[in-house]
Write a structure and sequence with these properties.
single chain; Single alpha-helices involved in coiled-coils or other helix-helix interfaces; 3 domains; 12 helices; ATP binding
Length: 399
């Protein structure tokens, strides 16, 4: 691992990233550390985080509000792609990492740093996402990952920090590892490491328990323009406001909880709990609107593209040639995906109960079984003969 003199550190204010500051200086000879905290809507008080970085030895502590960019340039593309990893997880954490890497690189260029650093361990997916994204954006920039190399337990890490004036957590540390942003929360570790154990209610924050949800359904309408959500109940919303509103509304009905055994990129299985109310609702609504506005062959072919897209985003390849090519395909498919989807929110379910679009391919005169039916039933016999001809020939000659 190459060493560096001036480093930009991805900073959250937690134990690991705080200890990274004295560690990089004392053990690796880094002279200057600039910390960067990205505001992705995690709800933290960012001013105390900024101040903590300076107290921990950073020469400069930056906080950047990138919520709008996060939704417009990262989340909306994933919605257009109906991106659900292993058909369940809407990539809330995975989508944040390439954005953080991008602003790390930009700050490194601005300040003349010769490396970026992060606090990821060697078991997770995020190290791959940071490292590969950085390599794609600026191949000659060094990447330092001290937590991947220092070999300290959490207790040893806290003790190391105390030696350099970094206070230990005031209250008893939560047994859970939690990552949060506008798109949701991921929760792991503690009792959740037993895949047979039901998650305790205390871990949830964005979603109500079913017993506590309203006893009457709530109906909402989500409007899309070219595959991008723009309105709720006919009212225009900016990207951040739209996500926040849906998180609150759907979460109030207990929608958006995911409990899954996930296949990590590094080859291990992990038990993951997610809360992602807005993304779950939006992806389901968007996919339904596509069924109304896309032809059968495009819809069916796009499903394979979506799976590939989801895999490469999960695997840290956001800035890859394949991702760019898939983006072009997906954007082409979205030209007609405009309209409104109506959903019923009730007891943990977001049920789609209606959809409409000016670009609809649903033709009532062809679909109806009533007197208005315009379908030529006589044409069906000839169609079936031609369609079934290969099967008939095979059957006649293959026995």
């Amino acid at each position: 691992m190459g060493r560096a003199k001036k480093v930009v550190l991805a900073y959250s204010g937690g134990v690991d990233t705080s200890v990274c500051i004295p560690y990089l200086k004392q053990e690796w000879g880094v002279e200057e550390i600039i910390t960067l905290a990205a505001d992705l809507g995690q709800g933290d008080e960012l001013e105390p985080i900024r101040a903590k970085a300076l107290k921990s030895g950073a020469s400069e502590s930056l906080v950047m509000d990138v919520k709008d960019t996060f939704i417009k340039d990262y989340a909306f593309g994933a919605i257009q792609a109906n991106a659900l990893y292993e058909n369940r997880y809407p990539l809330g954490t995975a989508l944040a990492r390439p954005l953080i890497a991008k602003i790390l690189v930009e700050v490194a260029e601005k300040y003349g740093a010769d490396a970026i650093a992060h606090g990821c361990t060697g078991k997770g997916n995020d190290q791959v996402r940071f490292d590969v994204s950085t390599a794609a954006l600026k191949p000659d920039l060094k990447i330092l990952a001290p937590a991947r190399e220092w070999g300290m337990s959490r207790e040893e890490t806290i003790a190391y920090g105390e030696r350099f004036g970094i206070p230990a957590p005031v209250k008893k540390s939560s047994p859970y590892s939690i990552d949060k942003n506008l798109l949701g929360r991921s929760i792991e570790a503690g009792v959740l490491e037993d895949p047979a154990m039901e998650p305790p209610e205390e871990i949830y924050e964005m979603t109500k328990a079913i017993a506590d949800t309203p006893n009457e359904p709530e109906y909402i309408e989500i409007g899309f323009v070219r595959g991008i959500p723009t309105t709720i109940n006919g009212e225009p919303k900016n990207p951040v406001e739209l996500i926040e509103t849906l998180n609150t509304t759907a979460g109030n009905h207990g929608i958006g909880r995911i409990d899954m055994i996930e296949n990590r990129l590094v080859g291990i299985k992990s038990r993951e709990i997610y809360e992602s109310p807005a993304m779950i609702v939006l992806i389901n609504a968007h996919r339904d609107l596509e069924s109304l506005t896309l032809t059968a062959d495009v819809t069916q072919y796009k499903r394979g593209i979506e799976q590939t897209y989801t895999q490469i985003v999960y695997n840290g390849l956001w800035y890859s040639p394949l991702k760019a090519a898939l983006d072009a395909f997906i954007q082409k498919t979205q030209e007609r995906v405009s309209g409104t989807v109506r959903l019923k929110l009730f007891k943990g379910n977001a049920t789609i109960v209606g959809r409409r679009s000016e670009n609809t391919l649903y033709t009532p005169d062809l679909a109806t079984y009533g007197a208005e039916d315009q379908f030529d039933h006589k044409a069906a016999e000839g169609f079936i003969y031609v369609w079934g001809l290969p099967t008939r020939v095979w059957s006649q000659t293959g026995q």
